[in-house]
């Protein structure tokens, strides 16, 4: 069984930042990432990143290109396509899809996963979670789309798609927006966007290259069916806490931490979106949390190391 001082689970900006701080503070680390590449959600950011100083990045991939050039990342011990499966919290044993490790400290930076709509299971006309309504919207030009959700991302997606789509339907489960109020003014001004309040998808039927949706609505004026070319769900995310059974969580599966980013086991730390919740998700916060967690690990490690004169 391989012994690892700091095992980092997740190769997005939180995990990579933690790895940089491990090198700076003299801690050995191993990073495991379940996908076949590093970068996490940076690959899915196609809009400008202007709130991560000192530069403005046209999209996430360019920030990631710079991050790859960091000396600590170039020397990083990385194992791709390796997923965390289970944690023995008493024995400090971490099991992944490829190995078992004895770990001094585990740092979780596994991020989030988009929520799914059970009524759309098996549907072939659902656009993927990473679909960019800025970079890829021309691929659905002249078509009819249904965007599902009432948060900022759903509203932004619907507005972006109206520039290319023939018509966009925005399906909102509640009777108010969860996103910023100014979106409502933009939506009202768009002739090819219709909002269906208090409406949910109950089922679907493929009709050639199109899709017939069955709807349930508390508003009698809303249609009972809707024919569209594509669906774009934007119904939020939940924390990736698979394999972390027993750790305290809040909201949609986000792991609770203390002021040092520790979970309720003192050797397990959580940083980034896996602990922040959707309301506070940001690159800047993830990077700062990684620094705090690794600095605390370093102090704990020094305190537990015997002094040998």
Offer a few descriptive terms:
309 residues, single chain, 4-stranded parallel sheet, 7-stranded mixed sheet, alpha/beta
Structural class estimated from helices and strands: alpha/beta
Helix content class = 10-25%
The average pLDDT score comes to 93
- From the N-terminal CA to the C-terminal CA, the straight-line distance is 31 Å
CA-based shape: elongated
Oligomer: single chain
Main beta-sheet annotation:
7 strands, mixed
Strand residue percentage: 25-35%
Low-confidence parts lasting 5 or more residues at pLDDT below 50? none
Radius of gyration from the CA trace?
Answer: 22 Å
**Total beta-strand segments:** 18
Count of separate DSSP helical elements: 7
SSE succession: EHEHHEEEEEEHEHEEEEEEEEEHH
Describe, in plain words, how this protein is organized in 3D.
The structure is a single chain. The chain is α/β, with parallel strands linked by helices and 309 residues long. The protein contains seven helices and 18 strands. Strand 9, helix 5 and strand 10 (193-197) form a beta-alpha-beta unit.
Q: Strands, helices and their partners?
A:
Elements: E1 2-9, H1 13-24, E2 29-33, H2 60-68, H3 71-74, E3 78-80, E4 84-88, E5 93-96, E6 100-108, E7 112-114, E8 144-148, H4 152-161, E9 167-172, H5 182-188, E10 193-197, E11 199-207, E12 210-217, E13 225-228, E14 230-233, E15 237-239, E16 249-250, E17 254-255, E18 268-270, H6 273-276, H7 283-304
Parallel strand pairs: 1-2, 1-6, 2-3, 6-18, 8-9, 8-14, 9-10
Antiparallel strand pairs: 4-5, 5-6, 7-15, 11-12, 12-13, 16-17
């Amino acid at each position: 069984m391989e012994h690892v001082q700091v095992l980092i689970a997740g190769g997005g900006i939180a995990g990579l930042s933690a790895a940089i701080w491990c090198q700076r503070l003299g801690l050995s680390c191993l990073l495991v990432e379940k996908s076949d590449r590093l970068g996490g959600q940076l690959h899915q950011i196609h809009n400008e990143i202007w709130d991560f100083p000192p530069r403005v990045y046209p999209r996430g991939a360019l920030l990631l290109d710079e991050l790859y050039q960091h000396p600590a990342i170039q020397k990083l011990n990385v194992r791709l396509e390796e997923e965390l499966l289970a944690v023995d919290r008493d024995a400090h044993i971490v099991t992944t899809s490829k190995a078992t490790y004895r770990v001094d400290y585990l740092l979780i930076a596994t991020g989030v996963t988009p929520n799914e709509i059970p009524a759309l299971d098996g549907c072939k006309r659902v656009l993927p979670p990473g679909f960019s309504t800025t970079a890829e919207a021309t691929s659905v030009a002249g078509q009819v789309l249904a965007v599902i959700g009432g948060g900022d991302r759903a509203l932004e997606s619907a507005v972006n798609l109206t520039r290319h789509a023939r018509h966009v339907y925005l399906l909102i489960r509640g009777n108010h927006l969860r996103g910023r109020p100014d979106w409502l003014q933009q939506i009202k001004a768009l002739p090819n966007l219709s909002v269906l309040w208090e409406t949910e998808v109950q089922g679907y039927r493929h009709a050639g290259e199109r899709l017939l949706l069955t709807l349930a609505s508390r508003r009698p004026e809303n249609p009972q069916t809707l024919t569209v070319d594509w669906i774009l769900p934007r119904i939020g995310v939940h924390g990736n806490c698979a394999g972390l059974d027993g750790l305290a969580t809040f909201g949609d599966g986000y792991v609770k931490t203390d002021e040092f980013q520790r979970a309720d086991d003192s050797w397990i730390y959580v940083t980034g979106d896996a602990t922040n919740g959707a309301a506070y998700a940001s690159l800047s916060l993830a990077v700062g949390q990684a620094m705090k967690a690794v600095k605390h690990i370093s102090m704990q490690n020094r305190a537990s190391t015997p002094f040998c004169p």
